[in-house]
Amino acid sequence: MFVTFTENVVEVQEWSTKKELTRCLAQCDLGSILLGEDAEPEHKFYSALVRPQTSGLHYLGIGICSEGHGLKPHLLMQPELDIILLGYNQEVTGINIKNREVAFQIKLNSLFYYFLPLKERGIVLIVQEVDVTAITDSGKELWRYGKDLITQAAVEGEKLYLNFMDENPTCLNIISGELVSV
Q1: Which of 118, 35, 123 shows the shortest CA–CA distance to 73?
Q2: CATH 3.40.640.10 corresponds to the domain 112-182
């Protein structure tokens, strides 16, 4: 699958083995970054090959070793910052495509589920198995909140509504992370 991202084309692929993934990354003449190498155990392998449209057939390779758990890594593209956010295992990594380097990494308390980008606020909510973490577009952590297994998360205005497996629903202010009444 190909995705156009500012002046880049990104090709996303799944691999059967780590050897196949590393062989692919070795072909990337603009360098490569391998994430999740400390995954225990490594079950799934993914690559995102970034090709700047202005440089011909040259690639930056981003590889992910995933623990599996039935969850696939997610990419969130932030074209205004030339950053691709990758959520996988128990972390989120921001890759600066222009500089071809890791811009930031955030360790999570539980398994990554998905991103809820709030562009108008410059905030990204990272929904995990039992936590929500709010970060700025540039990767600065604003707040964390965790209580129980999250079954649903929804944003309405400045409020984040969370439903849990065994706890009462909660409502948080998306800017401060403070509890608010419904």
Answers
A1: 35
A2: no
